[in-house]
Amino acid sequence: MKTPAREVAKRINDLKDNRRFSVRSKQLPTWCPGCGYFGIHQGIGDAIQELGLKHHEVVAISGIGCSGRYPFFANTYGLHATHGRSLPMATGLKLGRPELTCICVGGDGDGLGIGGAHLPHAARRNIDLTYVLFDNSIYGLTKGQPSPSSQVGLKTKASPQGNAFRPIDGTLMALSYGTTFLARCFAGDPVGIKEAMMQAIQHPGFAMLHVYSTCLTFDKSYKTWDNLHEWIHPLPEGYDPTDRAAAMTHALEDQFSTGLIYKEG
Question: Exposed, middle or buried, 199 (CB in 10 Å: 0-12/13-18/19+)?
Fold first, then answer.
């Protein structure tokens, strides 16, 4: 029995609009069971759906590392860049195709290590794209070396005597470089990620989400689920996200508050 022409037309329109279809691709995520990146994936996807963005007008750009796999798991266009180069690639893509929604993702090694020199320039140029920093403070894909955001003393197989170097704070970096929208989120709160992501996508300029996550395979002592659930808390009542200097002071004093850290008025 043939499908009625009206039903065929309806299905075609649905495919063009994509609002009724999941942002998850047919490729199942290969992250470790219990990884915080599942929550980030859920939050980003829910934001795309709730905003009604057409999937073929969204591009996910990633570098290397566990976060680098993200474009394979999203039912959008994707671009897999080299290690640390997701922001330059996203900048070029946005300049060439300004009508597209560009979502750039990277881990703490990708964004604060080898790609650390690209964050200030993306921020100061205020390119209209959204950057999501997956920060689990360890190199997960390459088996657990300390990353730029690892705490002093963190012991791994690659640092049996403890990490000797002070960590980089992605929130403070972004604020000092002039980011015009910055939210700090928790991978265990996909609803909070969704809400921050919706605001970030709609922000007309460079927007960044600094998302705390965990690597339950290689980090047994620092950013564990138990510790993060204990440490994470919302920004205090009356907090003013339009004051950059106050935001920097707060970030120095309180590393684990989540919410809208700064938004340029």
Answer: middle
Which residues make Cβ contacts (< 8 Å) with residue 30, sequence separation at least 6?
69
Residue matched to tokens 């994509």: 18
Kindly compute the dihedral angle of the four CA atoms of residues 145, 174, 207, 200, in this order, to the nearest 10 degrees.
80
Give the model confidence (pLDDT) of 40-59 as tens digits: 999 999 999 999 999 999 99
Given a contact cutoff of 8 angstroms between Cβ atoms, the answer to whether 180 and 255 are in contact is no
Report yes or no: 147 and 139 within 8 Å, Cβ to Cβ.
yes
Residue 163 tokens read as 């990490």
pTM: 0.89
Nearest to 88 by CA among 61, 113, 108, 109: 61
For residue 107, the one-letter residue type is G
Q: Which of 21-25, 74-78, 99-103, 255-259 has the lowest mean pLDDT?
A: 21-25
